[in-house]
Amino acid sequence: MTVENAPLDPVSAAIVDCGLVAVLRAPTTDGFAAVADVLIAAGVTALEVTLTSRGALDSIAGLRRQLPDTVMIGAGTVLTEDDAKAAVDAGAAFLVAPVSGLGPQSVPLYPGAFTPTEVYTAQQSGAPIVKLFPAGGLGPGYLKDLRGPLPGVRIMPTGGIGLDDIAKWLAAGAVAVGLGGPLIGDAATGGSLTALAARARHAVDAVTYARS
Question: DSSP secondary-structure letter at 129?
Fold first, then answer.
């Protein structure tokens, strides 16, 4: 059985089913609750709160109370074991790191990787999904080439991916994509929630199109 065909844990399976992880990053988390409501109404059901945002742990806990259990709330930019523990204690259902190196966790961990060796090492460590980061400068062709020798690795490209790139990445073999600025824009800092809703619907429609 290949890694790709191996059973996924429920959280990772839900993320793959959605096809998108909305990356919430801002100087503060004050606007994250309103942003989350808009994203979920549009069909985005996996949210990553980056620990570089002031108040991230309180935001994770608040979103967990606010949102239904069908919405996956995770922590991003997890760099240390202390970060991981604090995020899980706050209610994070998954952890995302820009690099590899963290040990096994009590929730799914998606480590960052860039080269074939890093991707393979992350997968061999037991990661259910590997975050290809930063992916924007590589392009979907890189992922297609990577999946030649590594067909069984579930990969989630993140970083610099535009809305119009979603379908291309999924067609190249991504199981999901992580979307930050191109999706969230300035909505978390007072920008238009109406514009956010339109971008979120565009993103969800792109996943549907790619998988149809």
Answer: S
Rounded to a whole number of angstroms, the distance between the first and last alpha carbons of the chain is: 26
- 48 part of a folded domain: yes
Which of 48, 81, 85, 168 does the annotation list as catalytic?
48
pLDDT band at 1 (very low <50, low <70, confident <90, very high): very low
Q: pTM of the prediction?
A: 0.96
Known catalytic residue at 118: no
Q: What is the DSSP letter of 158?
A: B
Dihedral of the alpha carbons of 12, 17, 18, 20, in degrees to the nearest 10: 60
Catalytic annotation, pick one of 4, 81, 131, 144? 131
Nearest-CA neighbor of 60 among 92, 108, 16, 26? 92
Among this protein's residues, is 168 annotated catalytic?
no
Question: How many folded domains does the chain comprise?
Answer: 1
Q: What does the pLDDT look like over 42-81, one tens digit per residue?
A: 999 999 999 999 999 999 999 999 999 999 999 999 999 9
* Residue 25 falls inside a structural domain: yes
